[in-house]
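Structure first, sequence second, as always.
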């Protein structure tokens, strides 16, 4: 084939990137998205959040930039079952699926250090710690409770046997035969008494036992026995209604005062028991119970009605078991016993209810003083609960309000975030709640967060914003100024008037987003500054997520941090399962840090919450017609909305417009910073019936993206097969192709449709392909260029079908403001199965892309002169089998290359620019990266990526950076696969990777101190002598944490390491200044070092003795194993010799 002189004279556009040494692919950073959460916990003292996953990873998050990744080892990849912070000594505890305890020390600078992995020989059912001592209680499957010393890192000698078996033996003489004969001695959970460390509540399937740790006995047993005729949670239609029943206990929570416990049961009921009365519950109720209804009582009248005519009484739907309970108190009363409380309930709903989590508001527990009794009381025996006190306790359990947090799926777990104190099981005075729920995929989880408690629960006097509200132990009787009282009442009234009913969303960190897909975009400095402007401003209906603690910084040993400022700025545009689009700042400038003196100020990537786009409010309005369903009401349509998805997003990096393509076929365009007073406030009817006006719908106050218009879905057009957005702001254009072969071109200024291409049924033939015009468009690309047949630079749309046939539409501008389509489109043949995004038009001289942006549009509007006519363009078009380069679009072919069969399927192509050169880069499904020169398409280099975790093509920018994804493993054909991680790579790793490594962290930076252990409070008023009594009638003072440690660890406890704080890292400048201040600090430091050295010596000796004992035990096991192995070997040799002798004989 002859090559023309015009092709021969084309410059080599890849001159500076044609060597293999010019390329170096590398992973820069992995961005985690936790769709596999199995456990969550928080440390209120430091503000850290820890997340455990199904693959054995533990992630710790704190202040901006603070992130630490831990891993369950030996072996790796084990599921995290339980996760807790030990607040007293700042350690993180984890139980894996092999039931081993992992202990990490979080108090030292740097990555938390794994101190010990310990096994208990049995499955672990629960564990619980206290902020006041350094032991953890571990419940085993056989019903035994072990204790573990977190300072000495060993199992302590103190243990609690299976108390329920002992209790059942004592209760064998019971006169009632129970219908429930299931195993009842399995431990479900444990709770330490919030105000008395000596009392441990152990929840068995049969009930709750209260253990006195010092006396080593059971002091209370709470077993629910429903008498014959009591409905319980199953109702009067239960087949066992006429015999005694014992519902299985499933959950436990303690009232902040310590005098009432709430026990959840498998039939969906919650039993409330007075700690002082184990004979009968105060109340048994469901979430739907009204007033003071007690389902443990027998209503003979109702029972007779149901039994006599069951057809007249509908059967109640079955309920979920109560899976988890949390009882929260607030600093909302001057009474030491506290004020209003909130019980958070997971489960208990009927099975046909909408998924959610229930919060129940109760009035204060403040019983009056009981009448004085003169009857003598035996020594050491608690006085019985007075009927008046019992009645007052029942009144405190009358529900004041109920709120259900709606979720996207059945709730699996929740976590409350206390404002400061870790006491009261970590449930006191929470400000937010994190809810983990199921998604469509098995084992996949979604996260939502809200403010807590709901605003309707927050009467003015209990609002956390009221700093004058008394704490639980506040004093009463202080004088009050009437004028201050009046002003406060007025302020509280105004506050209550401005209060909304729905709880506000808590802004989740990106690691908890349910991301389905992403788009990487490079933006210039002006666009970047526009996007990040006022990013921390408030948003109506949102509150910050309570995440803080620690400090992060980066070192620069290679001296490459100074080059970061020259890197281009990047934005990650993500679309989520909740029908929202979120923006992340992925600019490398966020990684700038110069040591501890200049810590990181932002996380990487950093969320831009004000750019959030919410599609649900628009899609749920059935009057807009953005769904193919024939909706008749918003409620009906809301149920169908759960099937809607965002299929793709398109972002214009200059105009900053964003287009969302929905599964239904709707296409919605959003614009940034539309003035609130611009445009009408009512919906307008547009000239084109395919379009719907949306500019009258404002976003939430604080959000910057507003809807402009949408293209309605239509069954005849089908779903969207391709979409392209020009990048020229209000002078832009939107092209949408459909599976039916239809094509719409929209002028965004109207908006108005300037082209409707309807497919015809006849066939046509090209030189290489025979195709029908009903083929769907797979690739749409805007460019400003000239053609061989039309040298004028015009705005053109390249439309490629499955067969490779490409129609090129030219747009013409007619003053004063009209754009039209010029004649019929030019037709050229391209590669078959065009790759979306694989069409490029380059300037033949410079290699620059001829984009349809502001510059390109301005060029197209200029008059054509002779110099412009001489300008040449190169059309690069990639398909499933190969790639072509053509001069002046429909002119002479420059080069052609085939991918080959061994590289895999081509997923994505990009023209990458570097140092005034460019090259074509192709990404394959097997992880290969192929580099071709331009325009002659010579393969110069092949690189390899690790196995990709998703079939989605990578998202790239023209500088060589790109992102790949790892999706949650799901069954074949799953319609939704959330991302587990995003991997940020680069093709030019020279002097790039260092700043992207995880920063150094100090998790203990800024951590406060653990508040003192809450003291016991009396059930009666503070003035009564009972206020000095302990719980369950004991006159003994509440136990301190160190006393419990001594009790559990035993007399032979090794000397624990000193509890002095670890040395914090210091900067070079500070250390230099300190060394030159004089000799006195040096002498003090030396003295302290000598003292600590002696103490450390004794500590090491103690630890060595403990380790020696463990090593001797391991050695004994090894010797036993060796002995057994030797015996087995001798037996095998004897058998072999016998066989040989038998054969020879």
């Amino acid at each position: 084939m002859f090559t023309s002189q015009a092709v021969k004279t084309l410059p080599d556009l890849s001159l500076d990137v044609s060597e293999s040494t010019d390329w170096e692919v590398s992973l820069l950073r992995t961005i985690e998205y936790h769709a596999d959460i199995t456990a969550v916990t928080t440390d209120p003292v430091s503000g850290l959040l820890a997340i455990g996953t199904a693959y054995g990873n533990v992630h710790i998050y704190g202040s901006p930039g603070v992130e630490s990744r831990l891993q369950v080892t030996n072996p790796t990849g084990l599921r995290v079952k339980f996760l807790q912070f030990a607040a007293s000594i700042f350690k993180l505890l984890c139980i894996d699926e092999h039931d081993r305890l992992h202990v990490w020390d979080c108090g030292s600078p740097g990555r938390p250090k794994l101190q010990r992995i310990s096994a208990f020989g049995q499955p672990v059912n629960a564990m619980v710690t206290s902020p006041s001592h350094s032991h953890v209680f571990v419940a085993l499957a056989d019903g035994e409770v072990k204790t573990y010393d977190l300072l000495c890192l060993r199992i302590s000698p103190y243990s609690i046997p299976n108390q329920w078996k002992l209790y059942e033996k004592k209760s064998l003489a019971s006169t009632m035969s129970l219908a429930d004969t299931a195993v009842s001695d399995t431990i479900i959970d444990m709770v330490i008494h919030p105000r008395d460390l000596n009392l441990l509540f152990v929840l068995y399937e049969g009930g709750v036992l209260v253990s006195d740790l010092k006396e080593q006995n059971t002091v209370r047993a709470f077993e629910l026995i429903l008498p014959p005729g009591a409905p319980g949670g199953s109702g009067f239609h239960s087949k066992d209604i006429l015999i005694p029943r014992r519902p299985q206990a499933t959950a436990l929570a303690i009232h902040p005062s310590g005098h009432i416990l709430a026990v959840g049961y498998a039939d969906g009921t919650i039993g409330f028991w007075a700690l002082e009365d184990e004979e009968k519950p105060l109340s048994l109720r469901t979430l739907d119970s009204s007033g003071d209804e007690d389902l443990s009582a027998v209503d003979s009248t109702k029972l007779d009605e149901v039994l006599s005519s069951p057809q007249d009484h509908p059967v109640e739907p079955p309920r979920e078991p109560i899976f988890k309970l949390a009882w929260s108190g607030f600093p909302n009363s001057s009474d030491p016993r506290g004020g209003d409380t909130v019980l958070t309930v997971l489960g208990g709903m009927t099975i046909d209810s909408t998924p959610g989590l229930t919060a129940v508001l109760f009035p204060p527990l403040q019983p009056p003083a009981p009448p004085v009794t003169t009857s003598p009381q035996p020594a050491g025996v608690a006085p019985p609960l007075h009927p008046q006190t019992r009645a007052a306790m029942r009144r405190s359990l009358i529900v004041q309000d109920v709120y259900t947090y709606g979720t996207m799926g059945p709730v699996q777990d929740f976590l409350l975030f206390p404002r400061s104190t870790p006491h009261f099981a970590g449930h006191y005075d929470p400000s937010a709640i994190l809810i983990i729920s199921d998604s469509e995929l098995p084992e996949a989880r979604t996260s939502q967060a809200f403010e807590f408690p709901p605003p309707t629960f927050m009467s003015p006097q209990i609002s956390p914003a009221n700093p004058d509200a008394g704490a639980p132990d506040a004093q009463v009787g202080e004088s009050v100024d009437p004028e201050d009282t009046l002003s406060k009442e007025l302020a509280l009234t105004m506050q209550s008037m401005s209060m909304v009913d729905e709880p506000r969303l808590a802004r989740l960190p990106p690691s908890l987003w349910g991301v389905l897909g992403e788009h990487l975009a490079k933006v210039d400095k002006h666009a970047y500054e526009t996007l990040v402007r006022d990013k921390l401003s408030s948003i109506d209906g949102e509150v910050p997520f309570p995440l803080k603690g620690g400090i992060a910084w980066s070192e620069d040993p290679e001296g490459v941090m100074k080059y970061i400022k020259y890197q281009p700025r990047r934005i990650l545009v993500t679309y989520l399962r909740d029908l929202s689009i979120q923006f992340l700042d992925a600019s490398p400038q966020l990684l700038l840090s110069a040591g501890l003196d200049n810590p990181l100020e932002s996380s990487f990537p950093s969320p831009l919450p004000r750019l959030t786009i919410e599609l649900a409010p628009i899609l749920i309005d059935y009057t807009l017609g953005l769904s193919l369903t024939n909706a008749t009401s918003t409620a009906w349509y809301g149920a169908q909305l759960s099937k809607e998805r965002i299929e793709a997003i398109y972002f214009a990096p200059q105009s900053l417009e964003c287009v969302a393509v929905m599964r239904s076929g709707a296409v919605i365009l959003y614009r940034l910073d539309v003035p609130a007073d611009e445009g009408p406030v009512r919906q307008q009817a547009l000239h084109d019936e395919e379009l719907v006006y949306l500019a009258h719908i404002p976003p939430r106050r604080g959000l910057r993206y507003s809807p402009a218009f949408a293209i309605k879905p239509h069954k005849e057009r089908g779903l969207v097969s391709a979409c392209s957005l020009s990048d020229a702001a209000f002078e832009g254009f939107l092209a949408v192709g459909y599976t039916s072969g239809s094509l719409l071109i929209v002028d965004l200024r109207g908006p108005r449709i300037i082209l409707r291409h309807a497919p015809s049924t006849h066939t046509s033939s090209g030189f290489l392909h025979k195709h029908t015009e009903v083929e769907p468009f797979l690739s749409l690309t805007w460019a400003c260029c000239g053609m061989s047949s039309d040298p004028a630079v015009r705005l053109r749309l390249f439309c490629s079908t499955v067969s490779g046939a490409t129609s090129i539409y030219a747009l013409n501008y007619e003053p004063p403001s009209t754009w039209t389509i010029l004649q019929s489109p030019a037709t050229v043949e391209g590669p078959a199965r065009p790759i979306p995004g694989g069409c490029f038009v380059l300037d033949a001289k410079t290699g620059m892309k001829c984009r349809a942006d502001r510059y390109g549009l301005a060029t197209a509007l200029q008059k054509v002169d002779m110099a412009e006519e001489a300008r040449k363009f190169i059309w690069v078009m990639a398909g499933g089998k190969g790639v072509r380069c053509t001069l002046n679009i429909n002119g002479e072919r420059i080069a052609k290359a085939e991918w080959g069969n061994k590289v895999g399927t081509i997923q994505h192509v990009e023209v990458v620019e570097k140092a005034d050169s460019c090259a074509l880069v192709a990404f394959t499904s097997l992880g290969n990266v192929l580099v071709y020169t331009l325009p002659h398409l010579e393969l110069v280099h092949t690189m390899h990526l690790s196995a990709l975790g998703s079939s989605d093509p990578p998202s790239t920018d023209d500088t060589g950076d790109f992102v790949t994804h790892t999706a949650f493993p799901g069954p074949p054909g799953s319609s939704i696969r959330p991302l587990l991680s995003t991997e940020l790579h680069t093709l030019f790793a020279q002097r790039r990777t260092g700043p992207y490594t995880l920063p150094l962290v100090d998790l203990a930076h800024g951590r406060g101190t653990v508040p003192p252990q809450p003291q016991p409070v009396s059930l009666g008023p503070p003035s009564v002598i009972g206020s000095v009594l302990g719980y369950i009638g004991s006159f003994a003072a509440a136990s301190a944490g160190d006393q419990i440690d001594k009790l559990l660890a035993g007399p032979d406890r090794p000397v624990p390491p000193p509890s002095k704080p670890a040395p914090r890292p210091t900067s070079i400048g500070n250390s230099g200044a300190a060394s030159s201040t004089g000799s006195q600090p040096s002498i003090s430091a030396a003295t302290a070092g000598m003292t600590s050295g002696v103490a450390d010596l004794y500590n090491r000796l103690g630890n060595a003795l403990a380790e020696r004992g463990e090593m001797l035990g391991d050695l004994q096991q090894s010797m036993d194993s060796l002995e057994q192995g030797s015996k087995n070997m001798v037996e095998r040799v004897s058998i072999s010799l016998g066989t040989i002798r038998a054969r020879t004989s």
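Margin note: Residues 124-223 form a domain with the Thrombin, subunit H fold (CATH 2.40.10.480).
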